[in-house]
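Quarterly update from the structural biology core.
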Amino acid sequence: MQNISITTEFTPNPNSLKFNVSVPICTHGTVHFASRAEAGKSPLAAKLFEIEHVKEIMIGSDLVTVTRDEKVQSWSILIPRVTQAIREFLVCGKTSPKACEKCADATNPGSAIEKKIIEIMDEQIRPALARDGGDAVFCGFENGVVKLHLKGACSGCPSAIMTLKMGIEAYLKERIPEVKEVVRV
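Predicted structure, tokenized:
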């Protein structure tokens, strides 16, 4: 296999670190694993959960965001272990994880408004969140309320509410008058 470069990047969430990978990992969008029990869906997530103090994992097309246990004050012990686990997984050529079963990344929009929301999310909002090691997946639109599932660094970030309300909600309301509120599910 080609040379695999893995770099780390801090996120706005001090307990989440983004591992940028130079080769594709997952072709299904992003997949979030909130516990070791959920990791059975992904050989990479299962391998990462074997590392002590790993609390949550989000796997994207070319990144892995790891959220550590809040009791751990430093990333110095986790970074080499996570990097090694990702590298070993990729060298073995294992298959990528399945698509998220909680909120399918490939949601089938019903209305024109839902299509517009998903388009804005996919083209403008999700790429911005991915730069910080997170993601937000569209889960529905009902009575003016957009429902999103936050993943990766966004799921436990101290500024998640600010991102949701002042960022995503304001952006969607400005572009789609039917949007009245954005909530986290």
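The beta strands are 6-10, 16-21, 31-33, 54-59, 63-68, 134-142, 145-152, 181-184.
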